Amino acid sequence: MEQTAILLDEVKINSLRNYKADSLKFREEFAKTFNYSKPKFKDIFITKNYSSNVPRRPNQASNSTASLISVDVLSVISLLGKKRNPQSKLQQKLIKKEEEQYLDNIFSKPMVQNLTGLKGDSLQTFMQLYRPNIDTAKYMSDYDIILYLKKSYQEYIKP
């Protein structure tokens, strides 16, 4: 049997990520963490069902002063403690990651390269020096971003 070579045409694959879909999926995956809130004052009290007909111990009788209020000790510690809950720390990290992804999306290399003509190390340096902060970027429209990049580029090339 004779072996023959088959010549294949070149195929280019470009991955275009949809930032909004990625962000929604990220929020969905970590919904429990994003929706976490620190316990509030009202959360430290334990609600009791006084209408049940289950016999109670003497210290839990419905007319006892011990049954007036019940407190969840762990919630009190969490409410008064200075250390952050691990859930809260994770929430902060996830929000920071989402903000970084948003900035990467609006301040992308192809966009900056297209507007400035920079390449290689000069592009990298420009992107590090003139990357907008998240508070500014949240309120910028596409037009504002283009103006910001052009103004920053003029400042960058100025001797």
Considering the chains and any ligands shown, give keywords for the structure.
single chain, 159 residues, mainly alpha, 8 helices, 0% strand, flat
Oligomer: single chain
- Low-confidence runs of at least 5 consecutive residues: none
Name the shape in a single word. Answer: flat
What share of residues is helical? 40-55%
Query: How many helices in DSSP terms?
Result: 8
Give the helix/strand class.
mainly alpha
The number of E-state strands comes to: 0
Span from first to last CA?
A: 70 Å
SSE succession: HHHHHHHH
Give the integer mean of the pLDDT values: 77
**Gyration radius, to the nearest Å?**
29 Å
- Beta-strand content estimate: under 5%
In this structure, how is the largest beta sheet organized? none
Description:
The protein is mainly alpha-helical. It has a domain at 107-159. Helices cover 52% and strands 0% of the residues. It is built from 8 helices and no strands. The chain has helices at residues 19-29, 31-34, 73-80, 86-106, 109-116, 120-129, 134-137, 142-157. The chain is flat and about 90 Å long. The N and C termini lie far apart (70 Å).
What does this entry show, briefly?
By secondary structure, the protein is an all-alpha fold. The chain is about 50% helix and about 0% strand. The chain is built from eight helices and no strands.
